[in-house]
Amino acid sequence: MPDYRRNRVPGGTYFFTVNLLERRSQLLVEQIDAFREAVRQVKAQRPFHIVGGSAGSYALRLDAAAG
Predict the structure, then answer these.
(1) Which of 38, 42, 40, 36 is nearest to 55 (CA)?
(2) 3, 20, 21, 53: which could join 62 in a potential S-S bond, CB 3.0 to 4.6 Å?
(3) Whole-angstrom distance, CA of residue 51 vs CA of residue 41
(4) Are 67 and 48 in contact (CB under 8 A)?
């Protein structure tokens, strides 16, 4: 995995986007419940709160803050 630069500031906000290669796929919409469960599991291990986000047919965007 690449060593991405990260600004590790306490209380910082992180933004990420996930895009499907096949833009006609409905995978993100069809599997949104699995994504929600994955978020719950990660939050239990590494607490954060979701500031905002959106999910479309081929892209998922999320703003999250530590703690």
Answers:
(1) 36
(2) 53
(3) 18
(4) yes
Phi-psi map region of 11: left, alpha, beta (phi>0 left; psi -120 to 50 alpha)? left
CA distance 52 to 31: 19
pLDDT score of 1 more than 60: no
| Helix and strand totals (H; E) in the chain | 2, 3
- pTM for the model stands at 0.71
pLDDT digits (tens, 9 = 90+) for 4-45: 666 677 778 888 888 889 988 888 888 989 989 999 999 999
Cα–Cα dist 63/50, whole Å: 6
- CA dist., res. 48 & res. 39, Å (int): 10
